Amino acid sequence: MSDSVRIWYVSGQRLCNFRCTYCVSINDYAKSNAADWPPEDQARFEKIVDWIADRPFRVGVRLATLGEPFASRPFLSKAAQLSTRPNTDFVELVTNGSLLKRRLEQLDREGDISRISLWVTYHPTEIPLQRFIANARFAQERYGCFVVVNGLLFPDNEQQIVDLKQAAEDAGLRFNLDLGYDPLTPHGVHTELQAMVPILREREEDGVARAVRLGVHPELLDLNMAAMRDLRGQLCSAGHNYFYIGIRGDVYRCSRYQALDKDRIGNVLDDGFDLQLSREPWTACGAGFGCGNKEDYLHLRRRGPVDGPLPPSLGWVDRDPPAAAARTRRGDDPGALAHVVSAEPSGRTEETR
Ligand code: SF4
């Protein structure tokens, strides 16, 4: 058993205040602009979080949603509760950033906000850049949250990405750029990366060069493309120090195994469920191809050695804090950062399409 296990749990929380045209939460798992979640989904969520909180090992959790987590006070209450557990290293929330100034106070009041990590994705049609950056900065500087500002690259938004990167740098915020996905791509089949990723649909080399020039991490892009195309002979630590939990509580080695319904480990909600993770740090991947979510493919051994403590995120890989984060303090108090990182798109799953 690894010292600390990372968990990616996609919950059924649905309410969202944005209407992005490319949203990956569609069909049976669509977000809603009107309602949060049916009572049975909320009850399931609460039980699953309680189960995570009771693990006899340290956990770092990306607590993902179909909607906007800060639109749901019941969701935030449970996230806050998880953040206070002694075995919780961090709770990462994937957010559009619009409600941070209003709702972070709840996490501070009910939880341990020093363990809250925020993956804040910019949706330029829904929020002005200035307000978006101010909110992310507020989370980092007022509360000491670990904050990553994230952009999604599509063929027609280059200038918006350039502006976002500059604004993030000016504000001392971590900046990440992911490839935007087409939410209508068929799932669970051998999907070509070019079909899934609009930026790669023209000449792939051009799309790759453009993505890297604008800020996509080159080694991770290479890893992403290789993991999509061919996993034969690849070793992976998923199922050992990382696993995936779906909306209904099903546990799989990773989200790709869930999409393929391959080797389900069990269900958190079943009486007597006994989680058995692999004792071997590296085991062969049996998916064949199609590992397209960063939360998953970062566990491939071909990524190379990862020394020292990991950042409190399932999407961020750099160890160095941004310049401003290193000097910002909660409440302007020149004390220590809540998240001093010595040191990893809310991805698409069967349940977020
Ligand atoms: S390589 Fe990807 S699909 Fe294969 S086990 Fe690892 S995370 Fe899962």
What is the CATH third-level topology name? Answer: TIM Barrel
Highest-level CATH class = Alpha Beta
Full CATH superfamily name: Aldolase class I
The largest pleated sheet is described as: 9 strands, mixed
Strand order of the largest sheet: 6-5-4-3-2-1-8-9-10
Structure characteristics:
TIM Barrel, nine-stranded mixed sheet, two-stranded antiparallel ribbon, 11 strands, binds iron/sulfur cluster, Aldolase_TIM
How would you describe what is shown here?
With 353 residues, the protein is an alpha/beta fold. The chain has one domain: Aldolase class I (TIM Barrel). The protein is built from 11 helices and 11 strands. The protein has helices at residues 39-53, 73-83, 100-110, 129-143, 158-171, 193-196, 204-214, 218-229, 255-259, 294-297, 323-327; strands at 4-10, 58-64, 88-95, 116-121, 146-153, 174-179, 235-236, 242-245, 250-252, 266-267, 283-284. It binds iron/sulfur cluster. Iron/sulfur cluster binds at residues 227, 231, 234, 236, 238, 253-254, 256-257, 285, 287, 291, 296-297, 299-300.
Summarize the entry for a quick read:
This protein is an alpha/beta fold and 353 residues long. It has 11 helices and 11 strands. The chain is globular and about 55 Å long.
Layout of helices and strands, plus pairs?
Elements: E1 4-10, H1 39-53, E2 58-64, H2 73-83, E3 88-95, H3 100-110, E4 116-121, H4 129-143, E5 146-153, H5 158-171, E6 174-179, H6 193-196, H7 204-214, H8 218-229, E7 235-236, E8 242-245, E9 250-252, H9 255-259, E10 266-267, E11 283-284, H10 294-297, H11 323-327
Parallel strand pairs: 1-2, 1-8, 2-3, 3-4, 4-5, 5-6
Antiparallel strand pairs: 7-11, 8-9, 9-10
Helix pairs in contact: 1-2, 2-3, 3-4, 4-5
This protein binds iron/sulfur cluster.
Residues 227, 231, 234, 236, 238, 253-254, 256-257, 285, 287, 291, 296-297, 299-300 line the site of iron/sulfur cluster.
Region (Disordered): 309-353
InterPro entries: Aldolase_TIM, rSAM, rSAM_sf, Sulphatase_maturase_rSAM
Domain Radical SAM core: 13-133
